[in-house]
Amino acid sequence: MSDLLLRDALIPGADSPADLLVRDGVVAATGRGAAADGVPAEDLGGKLLLPGFVDAHAHVDKTLWGGPWVPHTAAPGLAAKIRNGVERRAELGLPSADHITALLGQMIVSGTTHVRTHVDVDTVMGLAAVEAVREALARLDGRITAELVAFPQAGLLTRPGTAELMGRALAAGVELVGGIDPAGLENDPVEHLDVVFGLAEEHGSGVDIHLHDGGALGAWQFELIIDRALAASARVNISHGFALGEAPQPVQDRLVARLAEAGVTLTTVAPSSAPSLPLAALREAGVAVGAGNDGVRDLWSPYGTGDMLERALFLAQRARFVRDEEIGIALEAATTGGARVTGRRAGYAPGDPGDFVVVAARTPAEAVCVRPVRSLVVKAGRVVARDGHLV
Ligand SMILES: [Zn+2]
To answer: 118 C-alpha to center of ligand 1: Å?
Structure first.
């Protein structure tokens, strides 16, 4: 935990630059001429100071980042991608702490200071991916923080033994329990959710469920998950939730209201293949929405750079946002929205984490549209990247 004075920083919405003082890793004061004898200082020259980006939906354990280019070989469809990933990962040396370290490093220089990553747990690999992610985080020595989701990518009910492995991961400190398409993939939503919420209850974990199922089947699973969330103490997030974006208006209105009532959060990766979530309605209702890069350059997809400004751009374009305030909503998902999803604070008030990214822009909308090299990335008051390079 470090001390740092950020001088001449433009805070979004402010008329003129100010100084921001971080002490012991958290914001201590904001204002002109914040007194800070002996504290290291950075002069930002009036550049925009944004909260550190939160990547709220990643799969860093799967990445091939930093290695040779691997052409995509999976057939279309979720089941084929799962099968291809399981079949090919060993030949490519996955999971690899080297690749994960390389990707997390790229995320850091792009301004990400916290990541929620789903990590595969299955009966072939056991907890090897959890260990690889932990190893990579140790190598990066606090430059980024992470929370892990024990994720049954290859199936939970359909792969006996997976639930026990997930329990072991949670007992060993993994923060959240994952789930995946309780109906569409697992064909038994009640039993799937029994297992997921049972593990969460037993280990005091959060819950984060991948829900790709669309249409009425997906909307029904929203209802099931919300019912569980209302009855449980766990923090609950639904990832993707394509069904919400395509639901008829009355169904969408009802689900948005129920998500707000239950405190269930959402994460989106803004794929080009699915309708946008109703971001403005969710914001109006107070439902936290985070954004994430999903898999980056892996056996599932050759795309991605780990850059949350790029993800905010995709989110804004998918939602057909053009006005500054709309593009600002997209950037919120990459900053304060992701922070809310992950139970963290973000901002410029005393007590907020000293996690920041500095870009040569005048407004959040300009930052998203131009995506300048990140001049400075600060984690808990420590400069961790400068001009696109790790420090
Ligand atoms: Zn995912």
So the answer is: 7
